[in-house]
TrEMBL record:
Family matches, as CDD domains: GT4_PimA-like
UniProt name for this protein: Glycosyltransferase involved in cell wall biosynthesis
InterPro entries with a match to the protein in the record: Glycosyltransferase_grp1
Pfam annotation, one family: Glyco_trans_1_4
Gene3D superfamilies: Glycogen Phosphorylase B
Coiled-coil ranges per UniProt: none
Organism: Kaistia defluvii
């Protein structure tokens, strides 16, 4: 079996059942990793900075936080997951809020990220392993020193690479900046900090997972060994999204986007493609926070409706208003917005760099991120052919219906069993 594709259960190679401690930052993947491990029967403990349990003080404060705390308050109030009720969740709670208030607002964001991960490491070490034999977390969010401590104590350490390595990310962003020079941002001085974290995390891990071939290829390009990288596509709860039959609609065909309006996400490409279409026939809409100079976005938007950030609960409503989904990103891990769009039955036009499970010619079209003419042709084809939009939308929905949390957990269980049987892959990841 190839280590790069882990869908089907391998023969049991380990007599030891994995018992996993997870370090979970925020609500990443909508808690898909600990939920999947729980369904697979191998979750031991989840460590978080903040979590709203039923009947807790956090739950009592959540309505006020959501109402008065702005975007951060709404996010914290939503940090709950019914599927983890009854699981062993260790959260720092109110000390997290106090620590955030004390953070140096003049520091680089990456410096604060490092301090947060170090605080989480102290929380985990203070709690102890409690019989766990595996540590799981996310590269760039888990503290490398915690991974090193786990390895010294005999635990298997498997980390997920959420996005292409920083070296690849910076290369892709530089390429986009050459194409769109006015979108170029000041030199990213914080990336060196995260690159160091990334490197030390690889050194401390026994195995790396990622959600797409794009990220795997990036890991190989920076020197990781193929035998210690596994592709496990991220899960999506397709049942939370109703399939929309859009055939009875009238008026312009709506081409939508959800995500940060930024250079890396392909915002200038989205604006440029929109210029090729008659706004009376095709309408382009971007939903998400503006992560570029607002004046620049205003100058370039043309006929594009830039909605800005919306509460997460409203994203589903916007997806239902779209007729197809354009996501011209230059660098991702595996864009969750695309999978959610697929769940509603939207055909997708995207890039290989988006790391999504879209199958070219079946669920939509996958086109190199610099081929704007190719994307325009794909969009025009979908605009002109309603039946094609429906067929590809149905295919997209079926595709993500296979990417369940249960299947994700089973793939992780199988991987951990193999890693443990191999002695945690004690050879270094870097060649």
């Amino acid at each position: 079996m190839s280590a790069a594709v882990d869908y089907h259960r391998a023969e049991a190679t380990s007599s030891v059942r994995p018992r996993v401690t997870v370090v979970q930052d925020g609500s990443r993947l909508h808690y898909g990793l600990p939920l999947g491990l729980k369904l697979a029967g191998i979750l031991d403990t989840v460590h978080m900075d903040w979590f709203v349990r039923p009947g807790s003080l956090e739950a009592a404060a959540a309505p006020m936080m959501a109402r008065l705390g702005g975007a951060n308050g709404r996010r914290l109030a939503a940090r709950r997951c019914a599927g983890l009720d009854g699981s062993r969740v260790v959260a720092a709670g109110w000390s997290t809020l106090l620590a955030r208030l004390r953070e140096d607002r003049n520091a680089l964001p990456e410096q604060n990220f490092v301090r947060r991960s170090q605080a989480m490491a102290r929380q985990v070490m203070g709690d102890g392993w409690r019989g766990a034999n595996s540590l799981v977390g996310f590269v760039r969010n888990i503290d490398p020193s915690l991974c090193q401590a786990a390895r010294r104590d005999g635990l298997s350490v498997v980390l997920d690479q959420m996005i292409a390595p920083i070296a690849v990310q910076r290369r892709e962003e530089a390429r986009q900046a050459e194409l769109w020079p006015e979108w170029q941002t000041p030199q990213d001085t914080g990336s060196a900090i995260m690159q160091d974290v990334e490197q030390r995390s690889w050194d401390a891990a026994g195995h790396i997972t990622c959600a797409s071939a794009y990220v795997r290829d990036g890991l190989l390009a920076v020197g990781l060994r193929s035998g210690q990288i596994s592709v496990i596509p991220y899960p999506v709860d397709a049942s939370a999204y109703a399939f929309c039959d859009r055939r009875k609609r009238t008026g312009p065909v709506v081409v939508g986007f959800v995500g940060a309006v930024s250079l890396r996400k392909g915002a200038p490409a989205f604006f440029e493609i929109a210029r090729a279409f008659d706004p009376a026939k095709v309408r382009f809409v971007m939903v998400g926070p503006i992560a570029a100079e607002p004046a620049l976005v205003e100058r370039r938007r043309g006929e594009v409706a830039v909605i800005g950030a919306v509460p997460r609960g409203e994203v589903r409503t916007w997806l239902e208003q779209f007729d197809l989904f354009l996501f011209p990103s230059a660098c991702e891990g595996s864009a969750g917005a695309v999978m959610e769009a697929m769940a509603t039955g939207l055909p997708i036009v995207t890039t290989p760099n988006s790391g999504t499970p879209v199958r070219d010619g079946e669920d939509g079209f996958v086109i190199p991120c610099e081929d704007l003419a190719g994307m325009s042709r794909a969009i025009d084809r979908l605009v002109q052919d309603q039946d094609l939009r429906l067929r590809m939308g149905i295919s997209a929905r079926r595709r993500v219906e296979d990417l369940t949390v249960r299947r994700y957990g089973e793939a992780w269980r199988d991987l951990l069993e193999r890693v443990m049987a191999a002695g945690d892959g004690m050879r270094p990841l870097l060649e």
